[in-house]
UniProtKB/TrEMBL annotation:
PANTHER family: OS05G0353850 PROTEIN, PUTATIVE-RELATED. Pfam families: RVT_3. It comes from the Eukaryota. This is RNase H type-1 domain-containing protein. GO terms for molecular function: nucleic acid binding; RNA-DNA hybrid ribonuclease activity. It comes from Linum tenue.
Length: 129
């Protein structure tokens, strides 16, 4: 879903909510959500913060996960989810709104298999202390 101009955090939160709604509508009742944004994850895990500018999206998330299904949300490093990166990069060239991709897209299939094998690129972490 292309949102237009918004923060990265807002985009992550909307992606989670829209993805969960789509999963529910398609009949999935066991869903694993992996976020590469610790900030977005913290916002979802602390829905009652007073300074939450994302309260409407968080309320939708809470309503969705309160349904009769299993939803697991966790943090992953960006490098371990190449499929999501590929879809996000394709989304930059799409019109605003919802878009779907064919499941037989060879590049998408490649990244799904790559992620499934648990492969990832090295990550450089600098100690600022």
């Amino acid at each position: 879903m292309k949102l237009g101009i918004c923060s990265v955090t807002r985009a992550e939160l909307r992606a989670v909510v829209e993805g969960l709604q789509l999963a529910w509508d398609l009949g999935f009742r066991w869903v694993k959500v992996q976020l590469d944004s610790k900030c977005a994850l913290q916002i979802l895990q602390c829905p009652h913060r007073e300074d939450n500018r994302h309260s409407a999206v968080v309320a939708r998330f809470q309503a969705l996960i309160g349904r009769n299904w299993e939803v697991f949300v966790s943090h992953v490093y960006r490098e371990s989810n190449k499929c999501a990166d590929y879809l996000a990069s394709r989304g930059h060239h799409l019109p605003l709104g919802f878009s779907s991709f064919p499941v037989d897209d060879p590049t998408l299939v490649y990244w799904i298999l790559y992620d499934r094998q648990g492969l990832s690129e090295p990550r450089l972490v600098l100690n600022e202390g």
